Amino acid sequence: MALQKITGKIKKAGAYPLPAPKTLTFNGQSKEVTHRHTIQMETGEWVSFGESHLDAFMVKDDDDKWKVLGEGSEVLIKYTANGDYKNAKKANLTVLELVEGKKFEKTNSAPAQKKPSSQGDSFVNPAEIGQCMNLAAEVLGFSGGDMTNPDKAKEAIQWYKRSRQLFTSLYPSVGVEEAVKPQPKPEAATPQYDDDEV
Question: Does pTM top 0.70 for this prediction?
Answer without folding.
Answer: no
